[in-house]
Amino acid sequence: MASPRLETYCCPNRDAATQLVMNFQPEVFCGVCIGSASISLLLTILQLLPKKGQSPRKMPKASSSSTILLLISICDILGALGMIFRSSVWLGFPGFIANISVSNRTDVWPSTFCVGSAMWIQLLYSAGFWWLFCYAVDSYLVVRRSAGLSTIVLYHMMTWGLAVMLCVEGIALLYYPSLSSCENGLEHAIPHYITTYVPLLLVLVANPILFRRTVSAVASLLKGRQGIYTENERRLGTEIQMRFFKIMLVFVICWSSNIINEILLFYLEMQPDINDMPLKNLRSAALITWIIMGVLNPMQGFLFTLAFYGWTGWRVDLKWRKREIPWESMSSSTVGENAYPSPVNYQSNLHDSKKILTTDSQQTDEAISMLSEANTSSDKRLTRSSPIYQGW
């Protein structure tokens, strides 16, 4: 799981709340993390691999949104690998981990492993949060025709730059002036927790606003095409809205336990004695949410692929080919595969004015198709009957 308590535990003089959760059934907790991260890792990779029976289609245009979704999955995969490695060492070498609690020691490897593995997990999941925020921004800009593959460079700079800067800054403040004397008070820990949870809270607050504005912009585009808003356009708008809803639902499910756990632990830290009987229920709630975090945090990778692509099936095709982003299939087709040609194919013999209108319509179609739900039946239904996918 991804929690700033992992870095705090690397301090020999850690606070009582961190000691409470990290010493609660560590073997069981590490086993839960390994199991959840391994299942999520395998299923995520299975989701991303090409499947047998899926004929590759020629995509008319690559999109920054599809690249961002792939990068989010990569961050989740690498974060899950970090969890598996850290928990495996924790279980396999308990004596090695026990040296972290010794203040005066010459062996620096336990602390190096503790800090390095915790930073790896935090950095990858923080980068995933920033990429998810970039996806919301890009979705809105795509509909407004203000984004494209050129903006992916800016997203890289913002995502990796902010993730590294916040991670390094939080760790430096936590371990100041040295690893052996850190965590002598909340003034060391609070900046570290803020830098950890800023991107998470940003996604929780900003993404729903951006998604709602994107859905409104899509509805305006659909209504403005021919001045009508048919059932097919309404269904397409609903599919896009449902995609955004599933993304936020997965995010809330996987990370709300982290926020609840931190609130409980910070409250316990401010008490004179964390072991008082009146605090028993709070301690139990903190330990329960701690275990829940170990289950849900690693599962984000697999759950996100379900929200992005739907269930892609079990039959893997090991012959490499270009991965098709499902919602882009709405703007590409192959006549020989019972698909329908792109609107531009119907306009090849029309007048120049008609071609200009078709080009503008196709650009809007491509922008909308990047955000729409992937599903073969709806693709065919919309392509046949909706004016969005017919020639004018």
How are the SSEs ordered, and which strands pair?
Elements: H1 5-8, H2 16-22, H3 26-48, H4 64-92, H5 94-98, H6 109-143, H7 152-174, H8 186-224, H9 231-269, H10 280-309, H11 352-369, H12 376-385
Helix pairs in contact: 3-4, 3-10, 4-6, 4-10, 6-7, 6-8, 7-8, 8-9, 9-10
Keywords: Cell membrane, G-protein coupled receptor, Glycoprotein, Lysosome, Membrane, Receptor, Transducer, Transmembrane, Transmembrane helix
Subunit structure: Interacts with heterotrimeric G(i) proteins. Interacts with ARRB1 and ARRB2. Interacts with MLANA.
Protein name: G-protein coupled receptor 143
CATH architecture, by name, is Up-down Bundle
* Secondary-structure element order, N to C: HHHHHHHHHHHH
Major β-sheet annotation: none
Give the total of beta strands.
Answer: 0
Please explain how this structure is put together:
- Keywords: Cell membrane, G-protein coupled receptor, Glycoprotein, Lysosome, Membrane, Receptor, Transducer, Transmembrane, Transmembrane helix.
- Its main location: membrane.
- One of its GO terms (molecular function) is L-DOPA binding.
- The chain is mainly α.
- It has one domain: Up-down Bundle (Rhopdopsin 7-helix transmembrane proteins), CATH 1.20.1070.
- It has helices spanning 5-8, 16-22, 26-48, 64-92, 94-98, 109-143, 152-174, 186-224, 231-269, 280-309, 352-369, 376-385.
- Helix 6 (109-143) runs antiparallel to helix 7 (152-174) and helix 8 (186-224) packs antiparallel against helix 9.
- The protein is elongated and about 70 Å long.
- The N and C termini lie far apart (53 Å).
